[in-house]
Amino acid sequence: MADEKKKNGVADENGKTKENADGDGKVAASATKTETKEDKNPSEKKEKKDILDELIDEGDLILKDRRESVPLTPENAKFAKSKGGLISLTLKHEDGTEEYFERVIVLRAFPITNPDEFISVREPDTKEKGKGQEIGMIRRLADFDEVTVRLINEELSRRYFTPEIKKIYSVKDKFGYSYWDSETTAGRVTFILNNPFSNIRVMEDGRIFINDIDGNTFEIPDPKKLDPASYRKIEIYL
Amino acid sequence: MKLMYELPDADRKAYEAAVGPDEKLLYCVPFNILDDKFVEGYMAFTNKKIYKLEGGRLLEVFDLSHATAFWTEVMYGICGFYAKIDGTSKLLCNFVSGRHLPRYSVLVKAMEILTQKHIEEPITNDTPEQFCQKCGRPYVHNTTICPYCMDRLAVYKKLWGMTKGLRLMMFFPFIVSAFGVIFSIVVPWLQAIAVDKYIKPTGEVVGSLTGNRMTGFIVIVVTFVSIDLFQRALGVMQARFSAVAGNKFTLVLKTLLYEKLQSLSLASIQRRTAGDLMGRVNHDTAEMQSFITGTLPSLFIQVATFLIVLVVLLIINPLICAFVFAPLPITVFAVRKVWEVVQRRNRKAWILNTRTSYLLHDILNGIRIVKCFGTEEREISRFKDSSVLSSNQNESNAKLFDTIFPLLGFLIQFGHFLISYYGNLLVFKGEMGLGTLSQISSYASMIYGPMLWITHIPRTISAFLTSASKVFEILEETPEVSDIGLPIDIQIEGEINVKNITFGYQSYNPVLENVSVKINPGEMIGIVGHSGSGKTTFINLILRLYDVNEGAIEIDGVNIKDISQAALRSQMGVVLQETFLFSGTIRDNIAYSKPYATDEEIIRAARIANAHDFIMNLPLGYNTMVGEKGYSLSGGERQRIAIARAIIHNPRILILDEATASLDTETEKLIQDALNKLVQNRTTLAIAHRLSTLRNADKLMVLERGKLVEFGTHQELLAKKGVYYRLVMAQRKLAQG
């Protein structure tokens, strides 16, 4: 694991680029290394409380662990199915060195409005290392070859598990909970909504997302296409 | 928490066929997603292997001796249980988060214990289940009440329990109603006698009212008048008693509810919005009052009337009685259908209404932001849209209900037409007196009254039950942080010993892990770390706003769980970044933690807080009103009042949560100075982003991702060149721009 995180030339050069610890990819350019060094305050006080002044030239240490996200393209990123059935990545850096990730995690930046673009590829979020950092971002999934697209889409659809509702058999309200029985692409399910009015989200394009009490999410891609009996059951919530 | 599920027969056979002789089943938990389908499968964990079973098939076997790590991943609408096997990450199974994430998180721990420490005893976890074990439906939050399996009688019983002391008063309306019912039966009967015997006696000449008949008639008329007077007098009394009983009941309920709210932990309060809680204290209790003083007596009257009239009608003429009841089955059916619609529509209207008021609440709170960004127009239209939705729903509900109920009324009235027809036939034939017909007619309308009313009652009862269960939900919530049987009141010296604590707002997701630290009395400890590293959580635990999951916090050698909350809080002072001043005078606000503080004490506290001078320059000095409707103070001024508030009760332990963040340099100096005076001889825990504000700290705690990574003095930590060193460097850079 340790050598996977070995630093590469690219990251060293841009060592001063601050990246938000939350991994939201916020990048703020800052001074280059040389400037910082010359910043050294000549009139530093020797008062020991103002330690800040004494150690100034080593300030870039803080950014040691940050990796910089790179755009991932078919040229620099080779995705493959790992031995464990997950996704591995070989990343080719600009300086020609290669970095291998036994497993990467793929996440959508806009799962609802733009699922096929802006896909973040990240290190696994392990306990020891805290939040997994972004390795890079795929601008458009379709740029990759078919096998890769299928591999990534498979993983994405597993991570964003959203069965579609085909038919609604019954909806019953009781004590503020709403009990649903419906046919979905993942089989027939009965699920419970806590307060249907706030857990049924209607998108601007008419799609409906339903979040149940267990953390399931169901989608109705086009409510108008439901059979009339099913539609009547959800009509009241729209 | 259940970690050993019973395998279904087919799966058990598959498991038994595969399991080795020296293996022992330790855990068995369900998983429910396989590929892209919902399934009912099980993961059986033995001391050597994990078996993945579904539909009687053994899908996979994982060998624990090759596994090095286990973890869960939360995704969208799904979770995964992963392991590192032979150096490669592998997905073991997928499951839905709500029910099983806590379970699998416990299993991750269990597997670590099993594979790394080789302890082959199954661990247990006492986190309560959140779902009814009988029907699988969710419990009412933080309780183990299943609204489905709960018997409604229980709700009524609890209500009954709460009416202690008010019962006699509440019972009175029933007595009055009983009289009312009797009279309403007697009056038509007297009328029948009056008509048949005196006004139009059968076979006698009309118009000669003399002698005995005259006396009889007068007696009847007088009876009418006195019954009417008596009934009205009773009515007045009933109304008065109802009002008293109802208001007393609401008062009791509201007080109980409010007391309970105060005793609940911060966690359960914060889960709900202020609007929701206000609604429960105000609206839901009023709903209950109207049910108890209005609906309940009426229900009694209606049912009693119905039964008595039924009996009387049967005695007079069973056939006519049958006509009266002819439309009943259809009506009952119709009412049932209508019930569902009514309930759902009312709920929708209610939700749209609250959504509008939340929106209003929200916007008014954020009015500064709205003004700053000039988004008034957008907010107006947002509010308008929401109001329109809500008003449309109300309108359509009203339209629908006002159409349905008269229609139901007609159905019920239909019997009336039948009686008129049949009764008139009998009168023509001379088999029945005119008075008797009018008596029957009166009774018929009396029986329809209750029947019509019953078509309304579902709405009322359901509204009541919802309100009642919402109120009870709060009343029955067990405070997460509660005093033990015999809490100790100690005089705090100020030593804090944190022993290996682990805590998470959800027990399976620790925010702090294995933190141990010993703080001597009078020491000032600075807590530093990135946001999200657990700093605020740490002080929340010291304040005991939450209880630790593992480990213990001891103050002067006593576990804080054993110290009464009153004693604990009264000896702790807190200054937060966001200062909240209650509506009231400055004096009230400073004296908040010590209401009987003398004026002298208050001035002294204000002086220490460097607040005295600016207070004296206010028009009414210490009596100046602040808060929502009062004088508006600057951030630094509010902060100094908060410091005075913390000083006034001379706390042994002082907690400063970014008390000087976002203030200008001069104000910060003033406050820093105030704080320096304040921390003398007190154990102080201070969180600060600006490390320079911690320069007086004796020691520093550096938290990173919930772990205590460094602890020591400035010099020690700098020499280490670790996390603290880097934080200092980073701030230095920022300061230099």
Describe the structure.
The complex is a heterodimer of chains A (238) and B (737). The N terminus of chain A is likely disordered. Chain A contains five helices and 15 strands. Chain A folds into three domains: 62 residues, no CATH class; 90 residues; 71 residues, no CATH class. In chain A, a hairpin with a 2-residue loop joins β11 and β12. With 238 residues, chain A is of the alpha+beta class. In chain A, the strands form five sheets. Chain A has a four-stranded mixed beta sheet with strand order 3-9-8-7, covered by helices on one side. A three-stranded antiparallel beta sheet of chain A has the order 4-5-6. Chain B is α+β, with helices and mostly antiparallel strands and 737 residues long. Chain B has five domains: 108 residues, Pleckstrin-homology domain (PH domain)/Phosphotyrosine-binding domain (PTB) (PH-domain like); 228 residues, ABC transporter transmembrane region fold (Up-down Bundle); 105 residues; 153 residues, Rossmann fold (3-Layer(aba) Sandwich); 71 residues, Rossmann fold, CATH 3.40.50. In chain B, 55% of the residues lie in helices and 16% in strands. In chain B, strands 13-16-17-10-18-19 form a six-stranded mixed beta sheet, sandwiched between helices. In chain B, strands 1-2-3-4 form a four-stranded antiparallel beta sheet. Chain B has a four-stranded antiparallel beta sheet with strand order 9-8-11-12, with helices on one face. In chain B, α7 packs antiparallel against α8, α8 packs antiparallel against α11 and α9 packs parallel to α12. The model of chain B has no long low-confidence stretch (mean pLDDT 80). The interface between A and B is large, with 62 and 63 residues.
